[in-house]
Amino acid sequence: MKKFVLGLLAIAMFGFTTNAQTKFVKMTLPKSVQSPAGSSGTVVHNVSFKNAAGVESRGQIRYVIPEVGKGLISLEFSDNILAAGGIRTDFFVQNPNALSGEPENANDLSLSECLTACMKNFTNPDGTKIPGRGECKAACWWKEVREVLPLILVLAT
Questions:
Q1: What's the predicted TM-score (pTM) here?
Q2: Where are the alpha helices (DSSP H) in 22-90?
């Protein structure tokens, strides 16, 4: 009986820890990248990062991506990412050029080109969506977001 109670306690503690790590905070986006609510998909990236003390942690980024268009309906970070980077929810509004979409080097696609390629590659000739378009668009946004945040973020496996 004692092992059973301890086992339940351990499961409960694990559940509380997991929930605490996945508290999402919605970021305020500049009007230039906002898409109206409508048909959409949600993609979550698990990421790892190091805080100012060099301690590695894991967090998540959640994108709500419209089926049509190049913007975002919503962008959310787990609260531990914001805390580690000292990032405020209005970071992208205060730094409006952060999501300008310009590539770091000439061989990369701009954000707009990347999103256009996703629309082209994941749309049937009859205009219907091919599965994977949301993940493709999230990958474009991931590339953009990771380049501008004051943290080094890496996709976690």
A1: 0.79
A2: 79-85
